[in-house]
Design goal:
Structural class: alpha+beta
Distance between the termini: 104 Å
Number of strands: 18
Radius of gyration: 56 Å
Number of helices: 6
Order of helices and strands: HHHEEEEEEEEEEEEEEHEEHHEE
CATH architecture of the largest domain: Sandwich
């Protein structure tokens, strides 16, 4: 289209010149005028558009006919540029990739001297399989008593597979931050690193802190006397004033009950030892000779009732006295583990309750009262934080 405009402009110009030449007094003949027009047209067409137009409108591949009415440029059919094929970077034989810390994330706190096991999960992203000749090797920082090298596997880790590798460490003796760096090594002792680590290392990093001093527990001793008592005469009578054990002269069994207030012992205390110590007593008849051994049991009766009277042969006593002579014995007064546990459990409620009973029989049936009458106290040793 641009060439057509240039051609028409030139043609008009030449016509003007020709007209001027045909004006009167012109000395140019008709034949010369025709030659001038033909030469000018040919030179204009061969010269083409100006330089500035060439930059914007490249010339057609064919020269148009100056005599044609319309100039249609012929397409050059220039093909589209081919997309370059990317070159494939070869995968190295030996290359690892850190996957995750299986144990001990960075910054985990340990006490001095703690023994720990660090495990990493590493992926083989190279092109060669890892065999038993491959290791992880310590590469600087804090060794923390680790060996210099650890075998990666006793089998084979193929490309694309993960492997968990562990190393045993010991936390240093001083407080601080400690980090040990590790790398991979092939059977030819060539060190290679981790693709997703700028340093090529994978590592273990821990904090070592000395624990705050814990004050030694305080040991305390306390004597606790009973706060209330009770007595059940088998099926016949309940008393809140006596706590006797034995049988009556009409051959009915007696069992005694006692309550102790533990509010003087802190709830977070630990009971260490306790004794069930006789305070005073007397006897009617011969209860130890006729009825057997007197035993004490943990018995949470709340308010004593007929249902609290327990059959002979009961198990689980925390002390037993088989004669009057044994009542003052500190060894026999010592409560066993069942009694200690009963005291410990009672701290929350501050109430410890017991039952006194002759185990072997309720009565010997001789029509004579055989009764133990006495009071006991608790001598408790405990510690508090």
């Amino acid at each position: 289209m641009q060439k057509r405009k240039i051609y028409l402009t030139t043609l008009i110009l030449l016509v003007t010149i020709l007209s001027a030449c045909n004006m009167p007094n012109s000395s140019i003949s008709a034949a010369e005028q025709t030659a001038i027009i033909d030469r000018s047209v040919a030179e204009t067409v061969s010269a083409g558009p100006t330089e500035s137009l060439q930059a914007d409108n490249p010339p057609a591949s064919e020269t148009p006919d100056p005599a044609s009415e319309e100039i249609t440029p012929t397409s050059t059919n220039t093909p589209e540029a081919d997309t370059p094929t990317p070159s494939l970077t070869p995968i190295p034989c030996n290359l690892g990739k850190f996957v995750k810390d299986v144990t001990i994330p960075d910054g985990t706190t340990f006490e001095p001297g703690d023994v720990l096991t660090k495990t990493w999960r590493i992926k083989n992203v190279g092109s060669c399989a890892w065999t038993s000749g491959y290791d992880i090797v310590f590469s600087g920082g804090d060794a923390m008593d680790a060996p210099s090298a650890i075998q990666i596997t006793s089998g084979t880790v193929n490309p694309g597979q993960n492997v968990d590798v562990s190393v045993d460490l010991t936390a240093p003796a001083s407080e601080g931050t400690y980090r040990g760096n590790w790398q991979l090594r092939d059977p030819s002792d060539v060190i290679f690193g981790i693709e997703n680590s700028t340093s090529g290392f994978f590592w273990v990093e821990i904090e070592v802190k000395v624990p705050a001093a814990v004050p030694a527990p305080t040991t305390n001793n306390v004597n606790i006397t009973l706060t209330s008592r009770g007595q059940v005469e088998d099926g016949l009578h309940i008393s809140n004033y006596a706590g006797n054990a034995g049988d009556t002269d009409n051959n009915v069994g007696l069992q005694g009950f006692a309550t102790y207030d533990l509010s003087g012992i802190p709830d977070d205390a630990t009971i260490l030892t306790a004794k069930f110590k006789i305070v005073d007593h007397d006897v009617l008849g011969d209860p130890f000779g006729n009825l057997g051994c007197l035993r004490a049991y943990v018995h949470n009766y709340n308010t004593v009732g007929y249902e609290d009277f327990t059959a002979v042969g009961a198990n689980g006593s925390f002390v037993r006295f088989c004669s009057e002579a044994e009542l003052p014995s500190l060894t026999i007064q010592t409560m066993n583990s069942g009694g200690i546990a009963g005291l410990q459990n009672a701290l929350a409620s501050n109430t410890f309750q017991i039952r006194l009973q002759f185990k072997q029989m309720h009565t010997n049936g001789d029509g004579v009262a055989d009764v133990f009458r006495g009071d006991f106290k608790l001598a408790v040793t405990y510690e508090t934080p």
